[in-house]
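INTERNAL AUDIT FORM
Audit reference: QA-55
Scope: verify that the stored structure record matches its stored sequence.
Auditor: D.O.
Record contents follow.
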Amino acid sequence: MLSLSGLNWLAIIVAAIAFFGLAAIWYQPKVMGTKWMEAAGVDPSSSDGPKPIFFVLTFVAYLVMATVLAMIARGTGAATFGEGLVLGLLTGFAFVALQAMVNAIYEGRGRWIVRANGGIGIIGHTAMAVIVTVWA
């Protein structure tokens, strides 16, 4: 059963922080940041950078994702590292990477936007799912 009751809220918060930290590293220029900016059409010299509210909204989104992953893990009985790994890989690929691909098709963007946004979705979901599954 999918329910909010009995969830480990500390694990959910830690999972969201983990995804936030991984994304901060992922979008650094030496990792995927430069390729993402080129693919997304972002010119770093023409702006002051992201507004603080962007980070707040991102973290809230990660909290919601971690909560739903915890609900799915509990509802399916997932309790091991391997089960968390599978849950994260599946949701990251099916819900994030494939959506990034669909968006890129309609927006006329190349494979780098899919690799950047889809890749961190898979990595972030996997980290969050492992945390909320093992630390239930």
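Auditor finding: record pair retrieved intact. Residues 9-43+56-134 form one domain.
Action required: none
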